[in-house]
């Protein structure tokens, strides 16, 4: 990943792998990412108290030694720091690790099945955006605010419920959560298609929201399985890059097939076919994915609701939904509507309550330590960049279809180059992550987001496709497919194997929730500046939304620059310490 943390490739101390001796020096970068070390069998020295029975306190290094002595199958014990700044979840991992596939014939179906989670998650977004106006016509609306809810409702639940999906996978096993997620995805894809007979766009939006819960459970489970199966190194980086490369390809696949069905058959068939595919993937998952033991500490006297952090989950999910709903409903009914403000305020209150619960919880969903140092920079960059991408994506399709008059299928064909560009970006990221610092990778990704936004924001309405539009479609996937694999690998290697679900859920929560929030902000700006339907008014409204996206990605560039400076500072400090 970085020059000052090259030992991530040489030592599995952080991930709990025991194949290599723990005598390898640990860099300052690794040390900062590591969960707090605690004394064995004693409460922390800074908080005196009576011995706690059945709790086994050990440092990360001690856990590695115990695991090595038992041949890699010893119990990974847990510890809970009692201070507000060091509280974190550390569950006991069932004494068996996921072994990498031993043959290519087994490994290829395994990786393919896991990559289908990311591909179909993005296909679910593409299948709605491409035929957006055809679907709107079937429900009798072309209102921009109501149409924006179709993709926003999906991204809302994908981003929100990923928050708890990672914890459930860590506790009960990622395989069962993966399969359950695809079964749920299939059910609500079917109901989304059936909703055409209701003639209610609200019911369709509700189905889209429940549909998004499927990939919310499947995607972090797939990422966590990869993280627990492969040790740090080039192969793991390339597999994560392959996983990320399916994102633009998945969107194009969803857009193309939904456009074909919408133009030549009937748009609900896109959802019926999605349901069939999800059932097939769920079945494939039961066959190709090995057993993934959960991390439930059976010796713990804590009730299950406490281990799951039910109060924190309820407060966090409620707050995220209310804030997101208010941002996306404001452009539809107007920000002067009282309940929009009320829901927004109540949502922020719930998020404040969530923060308080996490600080005081023995088993927090989001340990506060994760948001310090490099991980905080990484998540901030991902959120800002992907929020600008969501805006760019939706309003580019508006220009292609509403202003240039292309059919959904023609627009999908023009967008197909994104799949190739995204694949190149993802594999390039996999190759350079071990040689280039994460901060530089994030800087390049944020720059791609910004350049792609500027190219489309300034495009003449009827300019030839091969000028700015083509270039923007080639550039923007580099932002997507450099930031996602990089962030996933950084968090995966910063957390032990029993917390791979947490690592996956954090990245995907930030990505999908930021897309939905970004669409709400852009929709608000568009409705205030140019709510009309003429070509000139549509162009003005789209450009105002693009400017919002440029502002968000530009802020991402600034955060990435701070990340670069911070990483350089720590690198210089580490070199001085090594010289001493």
From TrEMBL:
Transmembrane feature ranges: 147-164, 176-197, 239-262, 268-292, 304-327, 339-359, 371-395, 440-459, 465-491, 503-525, 545-565
Q: Where is this region: Disordered?
A: 1-83
Q: Which PROSITE patterns match?
A: MFS (PS50850)
Name the residue ranges with Low complexity bias: 1-23
Keywords assigned by UniProt? Membrane, Transmembrane, Transmembrane helix
The listed locations are:
Membrane
Its domain of life reads Eukaryota
The residue ranges flagged as biased composition, category Basic and acidic residues, are 44-64
GO MF terms on file?
A: transmembrane transporter activity
The record, for InterPro entries, names:
MFS, MFS_dom, MFS_trans_sf
GO cellular component terms, alphabetically, are: membrane
Q: Which residues form the Major facilitator superfamily (MFS) profile domain?
A: 110-568
Membrane protein topology class: Multi-pass membrane protein
Do you know which PANTHER family this protein is assigned to? LOW AFFINITY AMMONIUM TRANSPORTER, MAJOR FACILITATOR SUPERFAMILY MULTIDRUG TRANSPORTER MFSC
Q: What is this protein called?
A: Drug resistance protein
């Amino acid at each position: 990943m970085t020059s000052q943390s090259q030992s991530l490739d040489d030592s599995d101390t952080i991930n709990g792998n025991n194949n290599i001796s723990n005598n390898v020096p640990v860099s300052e970068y690794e040390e900062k990412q590591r969960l707090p070390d605690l004394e064995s069998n004693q409460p922390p020295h800074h908080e005196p108290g009576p011995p706690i029975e059945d709790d086994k306190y050990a440092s990360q290094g001690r856990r590695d030694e115990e695991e090595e002595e038992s041949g890699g199958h010893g119990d990974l014990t847990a510890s809970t720091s009692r201070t507000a700044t060091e509280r974190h979840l550390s569950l006991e991992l069932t004494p068996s690790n996921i072994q990498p596939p031993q043959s290519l014939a087994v490994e290829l179906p395994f990786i393919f099945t896991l990559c289908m989670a990311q591909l179909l998650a993005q296909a679910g977004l593409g299948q709605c955006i491409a035929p957006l106006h055809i679907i709107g016509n079937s429900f009798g609306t072309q209102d921009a605010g109501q149409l924006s809810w179709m993709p926003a409702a999906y991204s809302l639940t994908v981003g929100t419920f990923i928050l708890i999906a990672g914890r459930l996978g860590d506790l009960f096993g990622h395989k069962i959560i993966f399969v359950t997620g695809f079964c749920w995805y299939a059910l609500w894809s079917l109901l989304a298609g059936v909703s055409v007979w209701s003639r209610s766009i609200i019911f369709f939006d509700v189905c889209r929201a429940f549909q998004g819960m499927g990939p919310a459970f499947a995607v972090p489970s797939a990422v966590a399985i990869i993280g627990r199966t492969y040790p740090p190194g080039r192969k793991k980086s390339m597999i994560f890059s392959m996983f990320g490369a399916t994102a633009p390809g998945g969107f194009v696949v969803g857009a193309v097939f939904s456009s074909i069905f919408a133009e030549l058959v009937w748009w609900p068939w896109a959802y019926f076919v999605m349901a069939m595919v999800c059932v097939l993937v769920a079945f494939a998952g039961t066959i190709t994915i090995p057993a993934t033991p959960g991390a439930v500490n059976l010796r713990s006297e804590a009730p299950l609701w406490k281990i799951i952090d039910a109060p924190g989950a309820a407060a966090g999910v409620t707050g995220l939904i209310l804030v997101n709903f208010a941002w996306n409903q404001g452009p539809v009914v107007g920000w002067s509507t009282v309940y929009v403000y009320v829901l927004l305020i109540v949502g922020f209150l719930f998020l404040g309550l969530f923060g308080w619960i996490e600080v005081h919880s023995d088993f927090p969903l989001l340990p506060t330590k994760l948001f310090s140092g490099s991980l905080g920079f990484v998540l901030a960059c991902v959120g800002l960049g992907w929020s600008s991408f969501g805006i760019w994506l939706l309003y580019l399709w508006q220009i292609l279809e509403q202003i240039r008059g292309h059919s959904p299928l023609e627009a999908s064909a023009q967008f197909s180059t994104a799949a190739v560009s995204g694949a190149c970006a993802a594999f390039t990221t996999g190759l350079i992550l071990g040689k280039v610092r994460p901060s530089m990778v994030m800087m390049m990704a944020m720059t791609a987001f910004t350049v792609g936004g500027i190219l489309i924001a300034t495009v003449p309405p009827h300019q030839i496709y091969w000028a700015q539009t083509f270039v923007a479609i080639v550039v923007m996937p580099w932002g997507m497919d450099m930031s996602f694999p990089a962030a996933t690998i950084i968090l995966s290697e910063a957390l032990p194997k029993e917390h791979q679900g947490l690592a996956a859920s954090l990245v995907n929560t930030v990505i999908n929730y930021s897309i939905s929030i970004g669409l709400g902000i852009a929709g608000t700006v568009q409705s205030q500046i140019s709510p009309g339907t003429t070509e000139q008014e549509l162009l003005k409204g789209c450009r105002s939304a693009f400017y919002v996206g440029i502002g968000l990605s530009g802020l991402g560039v600034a955060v990435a620059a701070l990340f670069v400076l911070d990483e350089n500072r720590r690198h210089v400090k580490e070199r001085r310490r090594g010289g001493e």
